[in-house]
UniProtKB/TrEMBL annotation:
This is Stress-response A/B barrel domain-containing protein. It comes from the Eukaryota. Pfam families: Dabb. The lineage of its organism: Eukaryota, Viridiplantae, Streptophyta, Embryophyta, Tracheophyta. Residues 35-127, 143-237 form the Stress-response A/B barrel domain. Homodimer. SUPFAM superfamilies: Dimeric alpha+beta barrel. PROSITE patterns: S_R_A_B_BARREL. InterPro entries: Dabb, Dimeric_a/b-barrel, HS1/DABB1-like.
Amino acid sequence: IILHTSFRTDINITCLNKLSLRNVAMSSSSQTQIIEHVVLFKVKDDVDSGKIDAMVNDLKGLVTLDEVLYLSAGPIHRLRSKSAFTHVLHSRYRSKEDLSAYVAHPAHVRVVDEYIPIWEDIVALDWIADQVPNTLAPPPGSVAKITLLKVKENVSDEARTKIMEVIKEKSPGIDQITVGENFTPVRANGFSVGSVAYFKDLGEMETHKDLDKEKVGEYLDDIIVVELVVPSSSSAA
């Protein structure tokens, strides 16, 4: 897959998503792989709240597009990062081709043109999930915990394998978790490993421990952890 390197094109890949009732009902039995797509936005401090609400609604409004299996977008519930990101988007696709197919879609271009001026920063990662979740579309009220890792340069393959194993350590309450290595470095800002874990609710999530830095911290330059409560509009087209 060849991706253009312009800021606008990368935002196109970042934002274009769709969820249909047909896809909500789809289970992992019909999928051989899943592409996870995560985008963190930092909205400028001086942006009017009405404009921010419109941005979120317009991102959600792209659910009418076809191949996306799942989408959730909204304000970050809780952030652990040196960067002050404000919003997050998570979507799922059948393939890299499906993800890239939306780059030039007119509906997506319209949203990009409208909201690029209010985005101060973006980090975007795409990865092939190490496993296909049993439920592709977590229900409203679920909580996503998204972890992005900036792995140090020249880390050995053995260390990378250890990082993946530590991320996948499953705690009670996790409905699903996937992990993988980013294949779209243009807007990743050096982050190379991503993980998404879904919990039934905030209470279940509070019992989950963050990545064990004692085991893999020596291999990492940075970690971002964000939490997103799945809004009701994520579960229907």
